[in-house]
Amino acid sequence: MSTVTVGDTGQIALPKELRERYGISSNTPLRVIETRGGVLLVPLTDEGMSSVLEAELAEWQALGASSWEDFRYDEGETR
User: Would you give the end-to-end CA distance of the chain in angstroms?
Assistant: First the structure.
């Protein structure tokens, strides 16, 4: 796991090993996706999504769907 710090202008520097692993180079656009638990950065490259990333995203989606039951909300309910 890597830790990065947000600079004064909102920029972050991704570690070299992550940039290499995901094909991120200077000026590579990234899609920023807000999730309930944080922020997901997805590189927008000419290469198709790898089967590994596709499986990982499917796993995250399934986890999100299955854990939704833990956060049930009924109309009129107050907490």
Answer: 35
Q: Which residue has the tokens 């309930």?
A: 36
Closest CA to 22 of 44, 4, 37: 44
3-state DSSP helix/strand/coil % of the chain, to nearest 5: 35, 15, 55
Q: Cβ distance 14 to 22 under 8 Å? A: no
Q: Which pairs count as long-range contacts for 28-37, CB under 8 Å and 24+ apart, including other chains?
A: 35/64, 36/64
> What DSSP designation does 52 have?
H
Rounded to whole angstroms, the Cα distance separating 14 from 39 reads 14
Report yes or no: 12 and 6 within 8 Å, Cβ to Cβ.
yes
Dist. CA 40–CA 32, nearest whole Å: 6
For 58-77, the pLDDT digits (tens) are 887 787 666 656 655 555 55
| CB contact at 8 A, 30 and 43 | yes
